[in-house]
Design goal:
The structure is a homodimer. By secondary structure, chain A is of the alpha+beta class. Chain A contains 10 helices and 15 strands. In chain A, a hairpin with a 5-residue loop joins strand 6 and strand 7. At the A-B interface, helix 8, helix 9, strand 13 and helix 10 of A face helix 8, helix 9, strand 13 and helix 10 of B.
Chain lengths: ~375, ~375
């Protein structure tokens, strides 16, 4: 269950010495074809890292032969020198594979404002090329971890024997339009680039895009889907979209479960909204309330802070008639206290918040985490 | 230096038993005239507390005779019963003063979703009426404290002997368009309600509105300015605006210095913006980055997180040409590392961040705090 589960892919993960921890830090995923169709989505941040600036050009023609990733430094806000490093890495991978550098996606993660040692990085690339293997997926997944405590991998079986495989890293800046999240998805289905693009955008819209750990938007987020066509099976667009969505949802829940310093995974469901966009706006506003998130950490079912967040949005609702449940206990009905908050047991990891706007029939779910001492600690002392 | 420093005002602060701490919890500020002109601003939150719903009606005619405030419960999301309590409090004050209830502003602060004991509250009102005094300002300021560690008061001297006095509470939800912030301002200047309204809006726009402690918008925020005219002096509108702005700025800095659990007061100045609105947007985005604020707590001059926040805005700038200074050390120039971050000493309380957008000649300043263990603790265990 990894990026090498679908046929037509090799991968590797090696130690180049970029990480102070001494762990694996360079990963390579190669599509051996026969097809090289791909699709990618990137962070919406306007201040993007050098690898993103490079890779956005790479993916334009819908062809990607390989993705090379490193942890131990994000190569972000590192100027022309940093961009030259990204370019050199793509060239080294391309030369090793006998392909063009313009078909090599580059991803970096770690501290921003830090220039990676180019020699070290290129040494890692050379080694990664030398140990590429059809069973190398797990090594690649390990090499992209930063503050992640576990590697995130997935495989989804499509009908007729094709698969979608995937790996992800990200435990901190999960936020709007992705977040220090690097994801590589592979499939041996036969698919054109435009179909892959629609499938990937549909999948990320309701998965990674609705994961909002701390409201911060990253600079390096990249999700790349490569299709080798090695199964020989041409799925329908619906079949492909469903499998890619399942893979993304699975990886998103793995990211949520491992978010930096979190004690609780919070699922916020907004119902009876006038539109899906308004449901998302309301859910996201609650997901970004430090006060609400600190209350959940303290096992306090503080529904008042939920209403206070809803009140900051422009969604349609009657401020005097909102209902809120926590873990299915309707602690607030008609914007006033109802069932006893003492009935809400917040001792477990999973917390659900359900909001009825009574303004329509649209709904959406946003996932977030609580705000904890460990979050503050990790992000005040973060250095790798 | 209090709300009773200007002539024509009496105030009191008493213990009604609403606060579990046993401290003063009911405050009253009365304008004895000869003029009763006033102006008020309220939270922009659509889910507002009962006292705000009441007081927004009270202030419409520009006449306010008294402001009654309680801590120990916000009377927010407490339904019709809570509104009836607010109304009963206004009636009790009105009866005691021989005025109309529709000229009595009511403010409450404390836990939301909690109904105050009406009998206790009315008992406090009766006592507060009985001890009204021209030297009662400090008692009133003490009675509105919640998690505040010190009372906040101010007096500003205008030309020709008139004054502006003020008191404020708020240490937590300082945020856009105010935040659990209750402020009463008094002046013995002669001023019409429309002049007071313009002066107050001008003053709050660049002071309380630019204080963003944790990004959360409160449900109870109220700022009321009352003019007694007792000095007999009619200042120009500019003089009045300047004095009110100085009073608001002073109180805002007192709130910032006492923000819940904060180790650092952070002043974010955005320069060379295309417009003041864009400067505010950029400053606010940085002020709301949990990652940046946790870094400041950890004494880490993490300018990369500043750029990542700027990149989420729609302001005009070149992502490859941003300059950022922390405590006047230009750690980032041209969106790349410049001066050594080790030169930034973050051991003191005051931290400055200066951002040059190089897109125009507008500027704005936003004030915020760092994100600390103490913030998480206070807001996970907050119960009064």
């Amino acid at each position: 269950m990894s990026v090498t589960s679908p046929r037509g892919f090799r991968a590797s993960g090696v130690t180049a010495g970029l990480k102070t921890s001494g762990g694996k830090d360079v990963a390579l995923v190669v599509n051996d074809g026969p097809s090289y169709a791909s699709a990618s989505v990137f962070t919406a941040n306007r201040c993007r890292a050098n690898p993103v600036l490079w890779s956005q050009e790479v993916v334009k023609d819908g062809v990607v032969r390989a993705v090379v990733l490193n942890s131990g430094g994000a190569n972000c806000y590192t100027g022309a020198e940093g961009f030259a490093t990204t370019h050199a890495v793509a060239e080294a991978v391309a030369e090793g594979l006998g392909v063009g550098a313009i078909d090599v996606v580059v991803c970096s993660t770690g501290l921003i404002g830090l220039t990676n040692d180019r020699g070290q990085l290129l040494g890692g690339v050379a080694e990664a090329l030398s140990v590429l293997d059809a069973a190398g997926g797990p090594d690649a997944a390990a090499a992209i971890m930063t503050t992640d405590t576990v590697a995130k991998q997935v495989v989804v079986e499509g009908p007729d024997g094709w698969r979608v495989g995937g790996m992800a890293k990200g435990a901190g800046m999960l936020a709007p339009a992705l977040a220090t999240m690097l994801v590589v998805l592979t499939t041996d289905a036969v698919a054109e680039a435009d179909v892959l693009d629609r499938a990937l955008r549909a999948a990320t819209r309701t998965t990674f895009d609705r994961l909002d750990s701390d409201g911060c938007m990253s600079t390096n987020d990249t999700v790349t889907l490569m299709a080798s066509g090695a199964s020989g099976v041409l799925p329908t667009e619906d079949q492909l979209t469903e499998a890619v969505t399942r893979a993304c949802a699975d990886l998103a829940m793995q990211l949520l479960a491992d978010a930096e310093g979190a004690d609780h995974s919070i699922t916020i469901t907004v119902r009876q909204a006038a539109s899906e966009d308004e449901a998302v706006e309301v859910g996201r506003s609650v997901a970004r309330s430090n006060l609400f998130k600190a209350a959940v950490f303290g096992k306090d079912p503080n529904w008042g802070r939920v209403l206070a967040s809803i009140g900051t949005t422009s969604a349609a609702f009657d401020p005097a008639d909102l209902d809120v449940a926590m873990n299915d206990v309707w602690v607030c009905r008609g914007s006033a206290p109802d069932e006893d908050p003492a009935l809400v047991d917040l001792s477990g990891r999973e917390v659900s918040v359900t909001i009825d706007l009574k303004a329509g029939d649209a709904a959406a779910t946003i996932w977030t985490n609580d705000l904890t001492h460990a979050y503050v600690h990790e992000n005040s002392a973060y250095s790798s």
